[in-house]
Amino acid sequence: MTRTPPVSSSFELAPLPGTEAIFSGPADPPKTLLRVLMTVPTYNESENIEALLNRIISLGPEYGVLVVDDHSPDGTSGVVRNFQSQCSAHVYLLERFTNRGRGQAGIDGYRQALFMNVPVIGEMDADGSHAPEDLPAMMARLSGKTAGVIGSRLVPGGREEGRTLSRVLLTRAANLYIRILLGLPYRDTTSGFRIFRREVLAGIPWEDLVSRGPSLLQEMLVIIHRAGWTLAESPITFRDRVLGTSTLNRRILMNSLRIVLEFRRRYGRSSLSGRVP
Known about the structure:
This protein has 277 residues and is an alpha/beta fold. It contains 8 helices and 11 strands. Helix 5 (165-182) packs parallel to helix 8 (250-267). Mean pLDDT is 89; it is low at 4-9.
């Protein structure tokens, strides 16, 4: 297996137990301080990633992206490295060669972002379903006592486009199931579009989590909610993937729902408080 060297050796890889990876940053690092870093787990997203990078950095020089790629055979990491070599922006790449999978990619991405000491750290999908243009409104909610913001399809103003009725109903049923079983007050617990203050994520025991798949999204919310942090939900428009192929299938979905029962046994049921309306 070929290990492509980083664009610059000055970028330090965080301690990631069990994961062999390389970390790189822009060849011409920007002088603007990085304030918001969105982690983007990828696998075979070469058709989508460059457009997403451009949309995120166009929000302002304080916005950055950390692509967490599981050594995609379609060359996703190569597209990111080429972008790093040509554009002076906060675009970083964590290419993982072992311990791969959606949940572990999310964990490693958050750990690398924490290691970089960025004040606001978030996560979003690479397939175009999450619009970077919704980020400024989410950031506006991150004030006062609000420790994090969930980009929500299910609050007033939120919506979905391009999805079949069966997928829309499945999303709502899954969220109702999770909210009832875990006692979470958030309407869109399955949303992968979210931002948090650094100190919120610093308190998560990453090495002890149950999740190694998409259920990481819910386990994080349970831990954060039980720690007493206040989260808000900001309306977004969720658009179904246009290019590429989703890695989500029925087996992964059913396993994610089953593991919610394990969360209930491990963490108990939370009280329905702590959400900013």
